[in-house]
Specification:
mainly alpha
Length: 360
């Protein structure tokens, strides 16, 4: 292999290293995006939790108010029941006699009618008179028993009435105090709820501000890496577009493979074979196979191409002057060397796809 051809291959490997450097910028951008999305998602979950807490505080306050209103309603019912108390009436002897007569009179009339019928026949007069007297005594005895029982119940009812009446009067006095206490409980609960809601709203405000700050910082970082990546890409165009047209960079691996294996002596010959594979729709397989082939010797080539990579890195560094980026001449050279090896498992087509993320 001639020195001129070796230099050409070294330059193409250097171009691949430069493309890998830009692709690395795309991966860093994706990392920032994912980290930002993750953090924003966490903050959104916290905001949603605060909103749920607000609804919980409102629900808790509503339940407390419901309990307080029930307490007030029950107390007012107690007072209303007291307003409807009826004083029990005492049963007098006169009332008891009237009750007894109302019971005894129908029986007496029945017996008298029976007696009249028997007297007309002259039979059992003495027996009937005895029964009537016995019945009268029985009714009289029942009258006193009834009076005693009824008046005993009256005493109990009256005492119960007095107790309820006293309770009612006391409740009437307590009514404004109880209502004031319940209203105070409601106001305290409302104040607690409002404080809790205000606290959650402040938290939501802080979290929302944090989300905006994260979005702004993430976007700022992304733009920094995009600017840096675009500058690197522009420098690569300046250095290598005269060797290989930018439209063919996706096929660098295939071109390197053709040159290294002697299937082509110049880039022009390699491009002719590239066009043939494109026409037969076999370019994807050809690039994949070429990437696998050059991957085996890429560490040796990376060592050999150090001078070319160093020169390229120096020119990229000049392109990046004035940009507050993370890269300088030394770090660019080290990054290109290491990325040439690290990205060897990716095809040139895959690398260019990542480059487009930076160029968008």
């Amino acid at each position: 292999m001639t020195k001129e051809k070796t230099n050409l291959i070294d330059k193409l490997y250097t171009l691949r290293a430069g493309v890998s450097l830009v692709a690395e910028q795309a991966e860093i951008i994706d990392d920032y995006k994912n980290a930002g999305k993750k953090r924003i998602c966490e903050l959104e979950n916290e905001i949603n939790a605060s909103k749920e807490n607000i609804e919980s505080h409102k629900s808790s306050f509503a339940k407390k108010c419901e309990g307080y209103e029930k307490e007030k309603s029950d107390f007012n019912k107690t007072i209303k029941n007291g307003e409807n108390l009826v004083k029990p009436k005492k049963i007098t002897m006169k009332t008891c006699v009237i009750i007894c007569i109302s019971i005894w009179l129908p029986l007496a009339l029945t017996l008298v009618l029976g007696l009249m019928d028997i007297m007309s026949t002259g039979e059992l007069i003495g027996v009937i008179i005895g029964c009537v007297l016995l019945l009268g005594l029985l009714i009289l005895f029942c009258k006193f028993i009834m009076l005693s029982v009824i008046n005993g119940d009256y005493e109990k009812s009256f005492l119960e009435y007095e107790r309820k009446r006293a309770e009612y009067e006391q409740n009437c006095k307590k009514e404004p105090i109880i209502n004031a206490e319940i209203n105070e409980k409601i106001n305290i609960s409302r104040d607690e709820m409002n404080k809790s809601i205000e606290k959650e709203n402040q938290k939501i405000k802080v979290l929302t501000a944090s989300m905006d700050e994260i979005r702004e910082k993430t976007e700022c970082k992304i733009q920094e890496y995009k600017i840096e990546g675009k500058k690197i890409y522009e420098s690569l165009i300046e250095q290598f577009n005269n060797i290989l047209d930018i439209r063919d960079w996706e096929s660098i691996d295939f071109i390197i493979y053709l040159l290294e294996t002697g299937r082509a002596e110049t880039v022009k010959e390699a491009l002719q074979q590239l066009d043939f594979h494109r026409q037969t729709d076999k370019i994807a397989d050809a690039v994949n196979n070429a990437s696998k082939a050059i991957c085996e010797n890429i560490s040796f080539t990376a060592k050999r191409a150090e001078e070319t990579i160093s020169s390229c890195a120096s020119r990229i560094s000049t392109q990046l002057d004035g940009i507050n980026g993370r890269l300088n001449g030394i770090s660019i050279f080290s990054a290109m060397q290491s990325l040439l090896l690290l990205k060897s498992t990716l095809t040139s087509t895959e690398l260019l796809k990542r480059v487009r993320v930076v160029l968008r």
